[in-house]
Amino acid sequence: MAYRNQQEFIQALEKAGELVRIRSFVDPKLEIAEITDRISKSGNGGKALLFENTGTDFPVLMNAYGSERRMCMALGVRHLDDVTREIENLFKLLSAPKEGLLDKLKLLPKLGQFASWMPVVKNGRGECQEVVMEKPDVGKLPVITCWPKDGGPFVTLPIIHTKDPNTGSRNVGMYRMQIFGPTLTGMHWHKHKVSARHFAEYQKTGRKMPVAVALGGDPAYAYSATAPLPENVDEYMLAGFLRKKKVELVKCLTQPEIEVPADADFVIEGYVDPTEESIWEGPFGDHTGYYSLPDWYPRFHITAITHKKNPVYPATIVGIPPQEDAWLGKATERIFLAPIKMTLVPEIVDMDMPVEGVFHNLVIAQIKKEYAGQGQKVMNAMWGAGQMMFNKILVIADEHTVITDYKKLAVDVFRNLNPATDVSFSQGPMDVLDHSCSKLGFGGKMCIDGTTKSEEETDEGYVGVTEAWKGLTGEELTGRWPEIAGVNTALLQQGIPCLVLAVRKQRPGHIRELHTALCGLDSLEGIKMILYVEHTVNAADLPVALWRFCNNLDPRRDHILTERPSAIDSKKKFACLGLDGTRKTKELDNFQRDWPNIIVADDATIRAVDAKWSELGLGDFIPSPSLKFKDQVYGEEAVVA
User: Fold this and answer.
1) Which whole-number Å values give the CA distances from 476 to 469, 494, 518, 588, 601, in the listed order?
2) Given this model, what pLDDT does residue 345 score?
3) How remote is the C-alpha of 290 from its chain's centroid?
């Protein structure tokens, strides 16, 4: 389903009871973000929020994609898997043998559909150019400041258009933009991104690089800008496929080489000069739940700002999960399952990216296994597939396992797991935002093969499933090792041989030393994995502990595999894998990079929102989610003190 524009989408949300209008004044600096954070964590993603009084001429739309229902509405489907099935059927049709004339004729309607999805450039001006700002000033837009240690206000939902100077091929991506002045922002594209490659080509020529930023329009545009498409696939073809209608584009006024959606609410035109010095951009509270720290990025110079009549400024916040971006990620997980299955990993049945893994950190793949080593085959294929190269922890499960039932998944995976033989470690490119890597953008990966093992994959030298740990208590461990601040034995009680320990590290090698000592206890035999988190984390809060653990772990560097003779069968060995998900420091871990803090709202903003809550029309009071995390922050800055 195609929306005529963002306003039609807003009307649809309101009609469905999925949007709340907030008419009281709310400051774009920190307050909008704090209110949105409370609502997005209030259960099922809360509601979309339209802030109508922002102290500027324009309202702000937040949390529009922030639930499964709203994500489906944005893409015009009843269920996200509807898109998966449609893509899979399309692949099957295109790949089927075309032996006779009838088979070829069957393709004609689909080819006509293909043509109807392709973007088209129309003559004249678009709705997005009804008003031209006489003197461009991005400060006149209600650009939000999300978190107290952000470097300033950021455009957080920009649809950024660039072109390859050699081929003219378009890329549409989404990269945050920090505001530095009326006509100057940063352009935060990472080195792995297509627009960064376009920029590198412009650097060779010394020519200024035209760039245009669209905001708003059909909600399919913003989703398509985040989608991990191959470099030669136009994002607006995906948008056309999703909305079942071609995207109409118009040429920019001051950067006519670039086209933008005619129905966008705002367009910011400008250029990046590859001969110019970069700008020190950041920090920024990012989707990992941690601040991404400052670095050098290109300067974007604004040459024009245009907008439609009565536009709405769309924005989003990212931070400690769950947030709105979880549903954008869920859509990608469902939509791109079919292409992965049809072109790269035919044995894959399903895939899940738990919210605690913030997309790239944790991926679960369900496969139809038919031969020994197939888990490793899938591992190599997936780590070589586009943005899946950023994945840190890959868990592979059998086809009979329900991978979205995490308890049953864990029971099955751990039953099939020998930690000494079924966990593979590698290294490669990582997300630039991954602070755990010793080197920026390069670090360790881990694959846990939780499939049923064949005879060829089984090492009989290790003790089988035992439950010597039954009856183990947290008090037994904290009494013996005072550095253990918390113990989570809940998984053991559910038949999952895994412990979560919160530990106050005090010396180099402390976690390795502690893990070796713990594994020496007969009462721990049969426990296959121990996850270590820092002492400030509540080990009993499993979702938070897993979120912190996944962020702080470099699996290749931070794993400790301990083996010893089994106390149950002296002819065999007991093995337990320790994974150090604590904060890394120069003093204790020889970690040379700055370590970021987690993101929390400041006390003044929390008090301000508390005071005006009754005026907002949002129902019963919701306390700030940041309060839960205040004691997990080290110091007051974006960098850990």
Assistant:
1) 12, 19, 11, 26, 37
2) 92
3) 12
Contacts of 509 (CB under 8 A, 6+ apart): none
The tens digit of pLDDT for each residue in 567-584 reads 988 899 999 999 999 999
State how far the Cα of 71 lies from the Cα of 26, in Å rounded to an integer. 25
Q: Give the residue from 330, 354, 356, 312 showing the smallest Cα distance to 157.
A: 312
The alpha-carbon radius of gyration of the chain (Å, integer) is 26
Q: Which residues are catalytic?
A: 286
| Adjacent-strand bridge partners of 291 | 285
Q: Which amino acid is present at 517?
A: A
Non-local (6+) Cβ contacts of 139 within 8 A are 179, 182
Which are the contacts of 375, defined by CB distance < 8 A and separation ≥ 6?
367, 369, 396, 422, 447, 449, 451
d(CA 254, CA 584): 48
Query: What are the pLDDT digits (tens) for 87-121?
Result: 777 766 555 555 555 555 555 565 567 778 889 99
User: How high is the pLDDT of residue 470?
Assistant: 80
Q: Give the strands of the sheet with 248-251, arranged side by side.
A: 120-121, 248-251, 259-261
Task: Give ∠ CA 274-276-281 in degrees, rounded to 5.
Answer: 95
Phi/psi-derived region of residue 33, left when phi > 0, alpha when psi is between -120 and 50, beta in every other case:
alpha
Question: Where do runs of H (alpha helix) occur along 483-526?
Answer: 490-493, 510-519
Percent residues over pLDDT 70 in the chain: 96
| Alpha-carbon span 199 to 191, nearest angstrom | 10
